[in-house]
Amino acid sequence: MLEKLRFxxxxxxxxxxxxxxxxxxxxxxxxxGASVILAGRDEAPLRETAKLxxxxxxxxxxxxxxxxxxxxxxxxxxxxxxxxxxTLVNNAGDNFRAKLHETTAADWRRIIxxxxxxxxxxxxxxxxxxxxxxxxxxxxxxxxxxxxxxxAMAPYAAAKGGVVNLTRQMAVDYGPDGIRVNVVCPGPVLTxxxxxxxxxxxxxxxxxxxxxLLNRLAEPHEIADxxxxxxxxxxSYIHGATIMIDAGHSAR
Length: 252
Known about the structure:
Structural class: alpha/beta
CATH class: Alpha Beta
Radius of gyration: 17 Å
CATH topology: Rossmann fold
CATH architecture: 3-Layer(aba) Sandwich
Number of strands: 7
Order of helices and strands: EHEHEHEHEHEHHHE
Low-confidence stretches: none
Distance between the termini: 33 Å
Oligomer: single chain
Number of helices: 8
Mean pLDDT: 94
Helix content: 40-55%
Largest sheet: 7 strands, parallel
């Protein structure tokens, strides 16, 4: 079992790798022996994360995942360095709180682009690399709010709901090619972004924690650990699944 959790230098691409859950994924995959490809829009946090995992082979590549041409260059860089891809973690995302009538078209397009279009672009570009690997796997990072409703979450919930169902479709289309595809739906996670919302009075962390059945927020590594398990050989029969990581929030 434990050997099936090892990656033995296999290349893993993580988008949104500089902060939050993406950063935690980099640390977790490095502990499991993967080669880690860190992708994100801002180079500085990617470099800082890469320093923390210098013991493994890393590739830092700045990329706006809402730009199909830039995503294509990312895939080319992975091809040139590794020749294939064991795992793709579509993690990049953004949030915007608003009811539908309060949402501008520009804000709608921005959230759909970051949270949903990026999954399309990155998966499409990386599919040849994944098909070149044995036992490749994709995990898409959606959200609790891709499955259940919450006030003032119109564009975010729409995008993440799209990720959930796109994952099912990807599972149908690419399972026969040997590529497993799953989606995780985290509840509230204590990232730097969420802490910033709390500091600005946008979010009440205690009230948010009280929505869960464990009365606490998740740490980023708790989400990363599940993602790493799902793409490992230890989860070889988990495919097309929607995994709630929400401390029972959606069970209430």
